[in-house]
Amino acid sequence: MRVLRRLNDDWMLATEIHKLEARLWRLSQRDKLRVIMITSADRGEGKSTTVAYLSTALALHPDRKILAIDLDFRDPRLNSHFELDVPRGLGTVLNGECPLQEAILKTALPNLDLALPLPTGEDPNLLLRTRELSLIFDWLRQRYDMILIDVPALLPVADASAVLPFADGVILMGMAGRTTRPMLTRAREICVGMDANILGIIVANLREATTGYADAGYYYGYRKRRAEVAGSASPKSGT
Asked: The domain containing residue 20 runs over which residues?
């Protein structure tokens, strides 16, 4: 599994991911958060990569059952880190063509499952089928300890906004040297306007973007309201 190999080979990345995983798990247990959405202001800011690493790190604990779900129907990227065949995409579930159970994919980790669109993408208008989405998340909440959702960026399209009501918390992604303050501000405004529970921000690419990296440190974080999720990873690419 590509994502697991990377975590095994890059100890610095693994350290930051495991710190983030520990904070997120503690917060989820304290505040009873089960469904966490990870999104960004714009495309290409590392959200799919982060969902892959974070879900894998969470699933390394044998007492947890983790699901990573890709709801980026326009340009699905999550499976690029797991390289699984997807015989039935989530679109078939939302269309009522197959039960959700048949679209759940098993990974090399016994405690980590995936739910993915077809690799070629599916109709994003399916995300507007709120009744079907609600039934899906009701079913998943009963079976998983944590569900991480990968969705499109907030600013270019409205897809993520359709999914926000189903999330217990939202983590925003930023890319050091790329994501601007106005972009993050606008993304935050969208979340706040829909009463989303913003947990924090992950800033990726600090290794490459921070001058004097060894002195400046690899960790970045902040508090948001009562939130305590913060951290940084260094994926160089992804959406």
From this structure: 2-216
